[in-house]
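Give me the fold.
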Amino acid sequence: MNIGKSRSLLRNRNFALLWSSQSLSLLGGQITFVAIPITAVVILGATPMESGV
């Protein structure tokens, strides 16, 4: 076992794929969280009271 030579986790292909896919999923969720209410207000012409703000 080589304790002195530690490898970066991002050099591990499987971990890098997991990390990047989780990051993209989180980003997509945050964009959706903002985009759907904005789209509803723009398309439906909802007032702030109707949109629950």
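Residues 9-47 form one domain.
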